[in-house]
Amino acid sequence: MTDSFEAILGYDFKRPDLLREALTHRSAAQGHNSRGRTRASNERLEFIGDRVLGLTMAEWLAERFPREQEGELGRRLAYLVSQPVLAVVADAVGLAAALSVSPGEAKAGVAKRATVLADALEAALGALYLDGGLEVAREFVRRAWNDAMIEQADPPKDAKTALQEWAQKRGKDLPIYEVTGRSGPPHAPAFTVTVTVGAADAMGTGGNKRAAEQLAAESLLARLSA
């Protein structure tokens, strides 16, 4: 499976163990490999990949939009590295099929969860960086995120900012966010957040509180604009 994913990434790993680690979900890291060593999950590589993505994306944005200031570039960056976009990119490159999860989690569809896909994509990017260097990582980012980058004609407003502006223009109190539910195992939690503006409210569920808040804000904006 890692061989086929190497083809998708467009890179032949000198250290294939890095790619295997990047594709190993925490639930599958409890066993041992063929040498009797404990398998490592992709969490450490995710940590590295997150920083590599931020750097390569910031560099690309500054190059593509030379007249924009920090605020505009920052909103573009926040969107392009957000969990929903990462999940779309991961799905487009076929990451779910290559991801190693425990049998129980596989039956529960964990490999297709947005938060799991986003984390694994960052881990794969971390592996690319450690094995091939920044240029290899940069080439993958620009290829895999090309469609998302092209779609951005104007700097986006994140949903929470847009909802706050909507409320202020109408003289309403600022949105109130409240965690109203949590489910899933510790390594793949799902938070449900309810946002309220006046008498209107909506819910959103995501892999962390911030993502859930954004999804709740998006849902309420869609309802208020209907």
What's the short version?
Helices cover 58% and strands 10% of the residues.
Summarize the structure in words.
With 226 residues, this protein is mainly alpha-helical. It has two domains: 2-150, Ribonuclease III domain (Ribonuclease iii, N-terminal Endonuclease Domain, Chain A, Orthogonal Bundle), CATH 1.10.1520; 159-225, Double Stranded RNA Binding Domain (2-Layer Sandwich), CATH 3.30.160. 58% of the residues lie in helices and 10% in strands. It is built from twelve helices and three strands; from the N terminus they run H-H-H-H-H-H-H-H-H-H-H-E-E-E-H. The chain has helices at 2-9, 16-22, 43-64, 70-80, 83-92, 95-98, 103-107, 114-132, 134-144, 146-150, 159-169, 209-225; strands at 176-183, 190-197, 200-206. Strands 1-2-3 form a three-stranded antiparallel beta sheet. A hairpin with a 2-residue loop joins strand 2 and strand 3 (200-206). Helix 2 packs antiparallel against helix 8, helix 3 (43-64) packs across helix 8 and helix 5 (83-92) crosses helix 8. The radius of gyration is 19 Å and the shape is flat. Mean pLDDT is 88; it is low at 32-36.
